[in-house]
Protein: Cullin family profile domain-containing protein
Organism: Papaver somniferum
Amino acid sequence: MNTHYKLEEVWPQMEDGIRKLKNILEGVPGESQFDSDTYMRLYTTVYNLCTQQGRDDDVIHGRYIETYHTYLRSRVLPAIQEKHDVFMLRELMNRWANHKVIWGGLDYYLNDFEKAFLTDTADYYTRKASSWIQEDSCPDYMIKAEECLKREKDSVTKYLHSITEKKLLEKVQEHLLLNNAQQLLEKEHSGCHVLLRDDKTTDLDRMYRLFVNIKNGLNPITAAFKLHVTSDGTSIVIQADDAMATGKKEDKAAAGLQEQAFVRRLIELHDKYYAYVTNCFKKDDLFYKALKEAFEEFCNKDVGGSSVAELFSTFSDGILRKGGSSEKLSDDAIEETLDRIVTLLAYIDDKDLFAEFCRKKLARRLLFDKNSVDDAHERSFLTKLKQQCGTGEFQKNPVDLIVSTHQACLLMLFNDSDKLSYSEIRAGLNLTDDDVVRLLHSLSCAKYKILTKEPNTKTISKKDSFSWNVEFTDKMRRIKIPLPPSDEKKKVIEDVDKDRRFAIDASIVRIMKARKVLQYNELVTACVEQLSRMFKPDFKVIKKRIEDLIAREFLERDKDNTNTFKYLA
C-alpha cells in the first residue's frame, strides 16, 4: 500500500537538510558534506511528496519559494551589501557559484534524478497504454493521451528543469502513441477509417496534433487516409461503370445523366477530402501527396467504355453549353464547377486526350450552338486549361453553321489567314489526304459553298487554294453542311496516338542531342519525365520509337553494349 506524504509531517526532516545545506554554503566550520544515505533519504522524500496523487501543488511550491527567498534576504543580500569595490564583486561571484550549486548541479540532476524519473515515466505509461488500448475507443484514448501530455508539460514548468521537457514528452509520446499507433488507428469500430467515414473532424484534428510532432508519426495516418480515399473513389468508379453499361443498353439519355452524376460525385468526393487536408491536417504536404496519389489511382480507369478524360470534357461541355443542362447554374456556380474540373484534371494521365476532346467540343459550341453561355466563361475556362495543360490554342469563330468537328476545325484555320493552300490546310489539320479531300469537297464543291476554290472546279486537287466565301448568303438562319458519318471518337484517339508518337520522337531526340550517350533505362526515364505533364508514355511505345529512330539514323546502338544508344548528329 502506497504511503501518503503530508508536507507538515516531513517538513522537520526537510528543514534539517535545508539547514545543513545553508551551513555548507556559508562555510560554517565543522559542517560536513551530505553522506549518500542522508542525501538519498531527503531526495526520496521530496520526490515522493512532489509526485504523489492528491498533492497540493500550490502549497508545496509556496513553501519552496518562501524558504528560498528567506535565505536570499537573510544571508545572501546582506553579505553582498556589506562589502564594497572588488570585495563586493568577489562576494557576488561566490554567491552566484553557490546559487548554481543550489540548482543541484546539472550532472547530479541528470544522472541521479532525471534518468530514473524518465525510466519510471516510461514504465507508468506503458502500463496505462496496455490498459487503455483494450478499454477505450480511439477518440477516448487520444483524449487521455492529450491530457497526459499537457499534465506532464505543466509539471516540468512547476517542478523540473526545462531541459527535461523534451525528453519527458518524447517518452509519453513513445509509450502512449508511437508504440500503439497501428492498433489504435486500426480499431474496428473507432479507428482512422471510421473517423474518416463518419466525418469525425474533431477527432481527426486531435489525431493530427498528437502525431505531428513524432518522427514519422504521420506515416501510418497518411497511409490510412490514402487507402480510405482510394477505396471511396474506386467504389464510385465501379458503381458508375455498372450504371453506364446498363444505361447505354437501355437509354442513351439515361447514360448521359449517369456520366454527369459520376463526375459530380468525384467533385464532391474531392471537396470532402480536400477540406480534411486543409482543416484537420493543417495543409500538411504529406496529406496533399496522399490525396493526389489516391485520386490518380482511380481517375485513370475507364468508366462505361470511356476514359475519365472524355467524361470530364463532356461534363465541361454541358456546363458551358447550357449552364449545367437541366439545372440552371449562376455565373459563380459555373465558374466554381469549372474550377473543380480543372483541379481534378491534375490527377489524369491523359491530359492531351482531354484537351483534344475539349478543342473539338469548343469548336461545336462556338460555331453552331446559340445556347452556349457567354464568352466570359469560355475565355476563363480556356485560361484555366492552358495553365493546367500547358497547351491549347483555341480561337473564336462565330459562324452560324452546323458542321462536323473536322469541318469546324478546318474552318477555324481561316481565322488567321484569308487564303490557304491545300498543303497548308492538310498540315494544319494533320489528317490523311482522303479526309482532307472529303472535308474540302463538302465545304467548297457541294450545295453550300462556304469556301471558294481556285481553280473553280468540282474536284479537289493538291494544287488548289481556298478562301473564305465572304459573299455566301442563305435564307436559313442555321444551315447544316452534310458529311458522311464517321467514328469521331475513334478518330480522336487515333489522332492523339499519332501526336504522342511525334512527341515521344521529339523528346528522345532532344534528350540524346543533349546527353549524346545514354543507357536504355536512363533514356526511358528521362523521356517519361519530360512528357508526364501531358500524358504518361507507354514503355513499349517508347521502345518502338527508339527502334524507329535507329532505322531513320537519328540514333545507333553501341557496338559493345546493345543496351546503350548514341546520338548521330
